[in-house]
Write a sequence for this structure.
């Protein structure tokens, strides 16, 4: 493990409210380069809130705690600064944007990130080639990319498009917000392959999921269980299997008992 | 629905009848009438004279009329207009109009309403297609012209139609015989402006498709002028059974260009009228589309986009008349208003008694980009039949926050993301235009008017 190195993400005692209702109630999480973490939890446990807070969406009040990204205060950064610094959120519900071409959008995003990395804008031909290559990897029909962003895409196509964007933008920390939901097994495998292709000692992944299914293909180094806005237990990949067997309810009550 | 940053000025001289006379009297219009070429058939000269009488009785519509509630005609009523010289004194600068000839098909270019001899090279049209100036059509197909003139756009009590008819001299005549199909669009380009005195122009165009004929006609109205230049143009469209017309109407004017445009359509059984109206207005613009679905299975698909800046006034009025049942209409009009511009959308749908199973949907969406911009949007459904499906909606708003966050979360700076969404909002209509060269031209115009970065297309 790369414990000596600075973590890519360090969440310390994070408390978040929405409209004065506490949603996250003291999250601690440390992710290092090269690691894949999974957060599992039932509906309403705060999984999506955590994703959005990390990506910088408005409407969330941080009442306590801090988040360091590569040692810097993540919460002080705008969404685009976070993205340019290598953070990526694969949305649970990707947005349709009629009138904005997929290719144009992708290229603008890539060039914004390249600029931040001190690289020249990518040449049109090179970009096309890059998209072709990555589209094949995630099994997305190239014709879809000539359309407007996500417009008229099926649920599965939208998820693949998220993974395609991830593959092209090559984030340092990729956060997947239930990217597996609504996917059949084949699509799930392709999505997992896309994520696995990104896996090396430079990158890190935080996969948020409701089910253990995804984790069969995307074997995590760590699994955390989020219930009621708190991480109630953490472990290795075997924890996912155990959850699948026993369910959140049983684990939840057991943990609550311990906490009390 | 109405959102406004300022009150609509009300002309003082408004009469109780709902019409206002030209502020400087009818003299200039009578003079113009007197200057028209008399070498036209007697029936046409009589029609013009009758129309002048109608106009003399009416004058211009005032804001007391429901149809003109948000539209102040004073910028027109106060001017003393002249007709342009015949033939025009100058030629238009090529760089002004050449970019607007893009279809690769047959085209006619009019400068100040006068057909230019410099026709762009185009493959010859098949025999069953006539593409003529109106004067040529009167020489070659007089009976047809006479039979059609005024049938889609009747005189009635329409001031501007009466004025157009009174001063009618030229226009384009497009006629496809039954079964004729054109794969490449026909382009009609009207270049206005470049005059020294306030000028009025009243072109009258015809697009006539026989049974089963199919065509795309792209009308472009362009020009810039430092003195008022009023185009009061009408395009009459008649669609035979199972005829399919795509009619793209682009207006890209600037400065003191004033524009009153009417497209009046009659549709037979099984016909499709696909209308795409894209407007970059000068000082004052009103575009009306009227279509009458006269037989079952007729379909009208109306898309519209207007992008206004500065102190432009831009008004789109649509009227879809479901005169018979089992007819379908769809409308999506979008407006982007910046500066202190003022936009109007009025969409009227009639479903006549007995027009069962009519299906009408209308949507108008607007984006206000400044506090001083104003939009008045009014859906008007008048339904006199049962068992119909009608819906309408109007939205006035800012950018979609969810989409903004999505773009920013991918590294796009907030300002760029905003531009992208504004562009995308408008471009949705451009992308519906079924001809890539036209879309390319329109995207460029859109970028220019929205002042956004060019979205290069790597694919």
């Amino acid at each position: 493990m790369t414990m000596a190195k600075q973590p890519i993400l360090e969440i310390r005692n994070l408390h978040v409210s929405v409209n004065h209702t506490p949603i996250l109630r003291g999250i601690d999480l440390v992710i290092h380069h090269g690691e894949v973490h999974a957060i599992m939890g039932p509906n309403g446990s705060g999984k999506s809130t955590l994703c959005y807070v990390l990506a910088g969406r408005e409407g969330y009040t941080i009442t306590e705690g801090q988040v360091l990204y590569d040692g810097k205060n993540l919460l002080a950064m705008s969404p685009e600064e976070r993205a340019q610094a290598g953070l990526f959120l694969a949305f649970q519900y990707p947005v349709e944007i009629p009138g904005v071409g997929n290719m144009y959008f992708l290229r603008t995003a890539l060039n914004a990130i390249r600029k931040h990395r001190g690289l020249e804008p990518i040449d049109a031909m090179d970009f096309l080639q890059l998209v072709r290559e990555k589209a094949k990897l995630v099994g997305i029909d190239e014709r879809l990319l000539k359309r407007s962003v996500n417009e008229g895409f099926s649920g599965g196509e939208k998820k693949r498009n998220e993974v395609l964007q991830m593959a092209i933008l090559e984030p340092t920390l990729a956060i997947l917000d239930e990217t597996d939901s609504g996917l059949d097994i084949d699509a799930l495998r392709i999505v997992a392959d896309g994520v696995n292709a990104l896996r090396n000692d430079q990158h890190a992944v935080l996969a948020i999921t409701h089910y253990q299914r995804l984790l069969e293909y995307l074997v995590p180094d760590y699994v955390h269980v989020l219930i009621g806005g708190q991480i109630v237990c953490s472990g290795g990949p075997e924890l996912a299997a155990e959850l699948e067997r026993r369910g959140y309810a049983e684990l939840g009550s057991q943990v609550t008992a311990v906490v009390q | 629905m109405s959102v406004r940053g300022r009150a609509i000025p009300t002309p003082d001289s408004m009469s109780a009848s709902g019409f206002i006379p030209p502020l400087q009297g009818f003299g200039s219009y009578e003079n113009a009438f007197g200057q028209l070429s008399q070498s036209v058939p007697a029936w046409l000269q009589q029609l013009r004279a009758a129309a002048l009488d109608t106009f003399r009785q009416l004058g211009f519509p005032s804001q007391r009329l429901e149809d003109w509630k948000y539209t102040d005609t004073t910028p027109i009523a106060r001017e003393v207009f002249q007709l342009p010289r015949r033939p025009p004194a100058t030629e238009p600068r090529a760089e002004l109009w050449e970019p607007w000839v893009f279809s690769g098909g047959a085209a006619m270019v009019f400068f100040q309403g006068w057909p230019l001899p410099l026709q762009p090279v185009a493959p010859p049209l098949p025999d069953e297609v006539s593409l003529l100036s109106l004067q040529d059509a009167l020489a070659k197909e007089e009976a047809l012209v006479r039979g059609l003139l005024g049938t889609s756009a009747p005189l009635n009590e329409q001031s501007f139609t009466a004025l157009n008819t009174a001063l009618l001299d030229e226009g384009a005549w497009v006629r496809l015989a039954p079964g004729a199909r054109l794969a490449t669009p026909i382009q009609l380009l009207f270049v206005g402006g470049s005059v020294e005195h306030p000028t009025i122009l009243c072109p009258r165009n015809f697009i006539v498709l026989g049974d089963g004929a199919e065509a795309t006609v792209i009308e472009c109205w362009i020009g810039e002028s430092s003195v008022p230049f009023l185009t009061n143009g009408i395009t009459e469209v008649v669609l035979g059974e199972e005829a399919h017309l795509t009619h793209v109407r682009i207006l890209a004017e600037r400065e003191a260009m004033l524009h009153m445009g009417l497209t009046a359509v009659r549709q037979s059984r099984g016909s499709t009228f696909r209308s795409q109206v894209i407007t970059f207005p000068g000082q004052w613009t009103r575009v009306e589309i009227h279509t009458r679905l006269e037989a079952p299975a007729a379909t009208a698909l109306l898309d519209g986009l207007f992008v206004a800046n500065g102190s432009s006034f831009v008004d789109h009025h649509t009227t879809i008349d479901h005169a018979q049942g089992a007819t379908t209409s769809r409308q999506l009009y979008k407006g982007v208003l910046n500066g202190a511009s003022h936009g109007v959308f009025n969409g009227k749908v009639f479903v006549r008694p007995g027009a069962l199973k009519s299906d009408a949907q209308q949507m108008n969406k607007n984006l206000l980009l400044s506090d001083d911009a104003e939009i008045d949007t009014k859906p008007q459904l008048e339904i006199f039949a049962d068992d119909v499906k009608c819906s309408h909606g109007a939205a006035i708003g800012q950018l979609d926050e969810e989409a903004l966050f999505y773009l920013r979360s991918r590294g796009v700076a907030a300002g760029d993301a905003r531009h992208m969404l504004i562009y995308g909002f408008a471009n949705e209509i451009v992308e519906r235009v079924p001809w890539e060269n036209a879309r390319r031209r329109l995207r460029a115009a859109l970028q220019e008017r929205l002042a956004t970065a060019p979205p290069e297309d790597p694919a």
